[in-house]
Design goal:
Layout (H helix, E strand, L loop, with lengths): L61 E2 L11 E2 L26 H12 L4 H6 L11 H11 L4 H15 L7 H6 L2 H6 L4 H15 L5 H6 L2 H8 L7 H10 L12 H11 L7 H7 L7 H15 L46 H4 L1
Antiparallel strand pairs: 1-2
Helix pairs in contact: 3-7, 9-10, 11-13
GO cellular component, one term: nucleus
Pfam families: HhH-GPD
Keywords: DNA damage, DNA repair
Length: about 350
């Protein structure tokens, strides 16, 4: 019998994650004593699971490397997660308020460059003014008091409420919590609004909210936190962000004044839906607050008749009472849209007083 020559063993291929994979069988030499037997294929080498074994220990993955396969040496390799270098990490962006020096000029220059239809408005109307008049707590309280009321009625109740507290500078969570629902009712505040005021004050008292933290929050977090307060919905949050915190890129898509202004600006046959507002005003970013300010002024100049509309439901708007109405609560109830009849009846007016 002739002496049979065997092929020396070849190193097994390895994958990029150090897992051995065998994709093709290794041909074994025929057995001369039993030629009818089929050559046996070696089993594939599988990646060992990192799941702990029955004895509670995690088995190690021991695999022969290509360089040590012939010598029988064993190398233990581990998968390591790649981390991005520190230099590539994105740091939080600092957003300047519109009341910061030079920001109004930057906003107007941007709006001129991206929307030619705004140029004539910017040229003929005074520049927007965003000045801080009240603390955040007082501004939010004022928003609650004006809900579902005409401007004059809201102003009357707000004046009596401030007097009850001892003046605007005295309005704070502790003072509001010290007032009973009966005391608030005596100045014209309903029981429901009294509960809203107390809920706001309690969230300040517990530390969930504060004037300092609200100023530092990003827009998304701020919207989420304020929406948890009973009686404060998306419209109130948007007005607060524009006129109290002077955030530059807020678009109140459900505000009837802004929607009517966009309709007039672009010559639309119908009021744009909130989704359409996002698309039409996307070019205004990152200064949509200034764009919204010009929409209010555009409607004021056109002398639009008093309008009241209910929440958008199936494309139909139902006539309602005069002035801003907001029913949205912690359970995200439907929001009512404010009417327009000159700047004195705009919902934004209560924030800029």
């Amino acid at each position: 019998m002739s002496e049979q020559t065997q092929t020396p063993p070849q190193p097994l291929p390895t994958s990029s994650d150090s897992t051995l994979v065998s994709n093709s069988p290794v041909d074994l030499p025929p057995n001369p004593s039993n030629p009818s037997k089929i050559p046996i294929r070696p089993q594939k080498i599988r990646k060992l699971s990192s799941t702990p074994s029955s004895n509670g220990k995690t088995p190690e993955t021991a695999v022969p490397s290509a360089s040590t396969a012939t010598s029988g040496a064993i190398t233990v390799t581990k998968n390591r997660r790649k981390t991005a270098p520190k230099s590539s990490r994105v740091s939080p962006q600092i957003i300047k308020p519109l009341s910061a020096d030079g920001e109004i000029d930057n906003a107007l220059q941007h709006l001129r460059s991206v929307d030619p239809l705004l140029v004539s408005l910017i040229d003929t109307l005074p520049s927007p003014q965003f000045e801080l008049h009240h603390s955040a707590f007082l501004a939010l309280s004022k928003s609650i008091l004006y809900q579902q009321l005409a401007y004059k009625a809201g102003t009357s109740i707000y004046t009596r409420f401030v007097s009850l507290c001892g003046g605007e500078d005295a309005v704070c969570p502790d003072i509001v919590l010290a007032l009973s629902p009966q005391q608030l009712k005596q100045v014209g505040i309903s029981g429901r609004k009294a509960s809203y005021l107390h809920d706001l004050a309690n969230k300040y008292k517990s530390g969930i909210l504060s004037d300092e933290t609200l100023v530092k929050m990003d827009d998304r977090s701020l919207f989420a936190m304020l929406s948890m307060v009973k009686g404060i919905g998306s419209w109130s949050v948007h007005m607060f962000m524009i006129f109290s915190l002077h955030r530059p890129d807020i678009l109140p898509v459900s505000d009837l004044g802004v929607r009517k202004g966009v309709q007039l600006l672009y010559g639309l046959e119908e009021l744009p839906r909130p989704s359409q507002m996002e698309q039409l005003c996307d070019k205004w970013k990152p200064y949509r607050s200034a764009g919204a300010w010009y929409m209010w002024r555009l409607v004021e100049g056109k002398g639009t008749p008093t309008i009241a509309a209910a929440p958008i439901d199936g494309g139909n708007a139902q006539a309602l009472q005069q002035f801003p109405v907001e029913q949205e609560t912690q359970q995200h109830q439907l929001q009512l849209l404010e009417p327009i009849n000159g700047i004195e009846n705009l919902g934004a007016c209560i924030w800029s007083q």
